[in-house]
Specification:
- The chain contains eight helices and seven strands.
- The protein is of the alpha/beta class.
- It has a single domain, classed as Flavodoxin domain (Rossmann fold, 3-Layer(aba) Sandwich).
- Strands 1, 2, 3, 4, 5, 6 and 7 form a seven-stranded mixed beta sheet that branches.
- Strand 1, helix 1 and strand 2 form a beta-alpha-beta unit.
- It is globular, with a radius of gyration of 16 Å.
- The relative contact order is 0.17.
- It binds flavin mononucleotide.
- The site of flavin mononucleotide (FMN) has 19 residues, from helix 1, strand 3 and strand 5.
Length: about 200
């Protein structure tokens, strides 16, 4: 299952684009599930280190809806709105709270592919940095960040919403980055599935 996570507190552009991404992945043969931070109570990591000893997070909030999905997922699509030139605080909180997942199993995310989507109100409002922040999370955990490649989607999917749902729906260039990125992502998922039988898979 491919897990899509929306880091927007609204049912607007980011959530819409994530749904479109998961629909595209579905058409490419992948099973998907969508989670949103909208309406959820998810607190920041307290760095209390309870998870390091107890292999679970001490903060019993709505993150507990996401923890089982994270464990089950074989790939990730993280979509964030751009806030002040980077990812939203909500997206960052989700990322930081995966510390408990990794405390329980340091290899929980290893070799899983991940793609990123950033939706900004401005055409060049920080989408690339937001995508790179998500990629950094993937890299830190031994995951495989997937872009859409050169000539259009160099780092991943980036959208210009003009702060509205209608605006993002009209962003043809954004949809091109999304199509390219989902295609490569699906290709990577299938390739990794085939690799699972090999002697070297997961030994690092
Ligand atoms: C606190 C805040 C900061 C923002 N900063 C930026 C920014 O730096 N660059 C940008 O392009 N858009 C910025 N925006 C606009 C949002 O990225 C844009 O409206 C986006 O579509 C929001 O996602 P949503 O439609 O899913 O809510 C900001 C919005 C908020 C609320």
């Amino acid at each position: 299952m491919i897990l899509g996570i929306s880091g927007s507190p609204r049912k607007m552009a980011t959530e819409h684009i994530l749904s479109e991404a998961l629909k595209m992945l579905g058409e490419l043969g992948l099973e998907t599930e969508q989670f949103t931070v909208r309406g959820k109570q998810i607190s920041p990591c307290r760095h209390c280190d309870y998870c390091l000893k107890n292999k679970e997070c001490i903060v019993k909030d709505d993150m507990y809806q996401l923890y089982p999905l994270i464990r089950e997922a074989s790939g990730f699509v993280i979509a964030t709105p751009v806030y002040n030139g980077s990812m939203s605080a909500q997206t960052k909180i989700i990322i930081d709270r995966t510390r408990a997942t990794l405390a329980a199993d340091p290899k929980a995310l290893r070799l899983k592919p991940g793609m990123a989507i950033a939706v900004g109100g401005d055409r060049m409002g920080g989408q690339e940095l937001a995508v790179q922040q998500i990629h950094t999370f993937y890299i830190l955990n031994g995951m495989i960040p997937v872009s859409g490649g050169f000539f259009g989607a160099n780092l991943g999917a980036t959208f210009w919403s003009r702060d509205t749902l209608d605006g993002v729906m009209l962003d043809e260039e954004g949809f091109r980055t999304l199509r390219k990125t989902t295609k490569r992502f699906a290709e990577t998922v299938v390739h990794l599935e085939k690799m699972k039988g090999s002697d070297y898979y997961g030994k690092g």
